[in-house]
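pasting for the record
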Amino acid sequence: MEWIIKGITSTATKGYDGAKADASRADKSIKYCPDCKQCYEIDNERYDYYHFYENFPRYGKEVKKCRMCE
């Protein structure tokens, strides 16, 4: 019975870190437009709609012109 308790407590601290996963997902989906100097993301449900983010850190983001600046 003791090995079950040790197994549960040792795996509770390991595993999925939602904050790191969310940050890496944002780095992949959010782009930076050098012309309008804003970060943007294409809507997953409606591909013709863009979400623009003002005052958003651009560090680590892919540089690509948005549809408005092309």
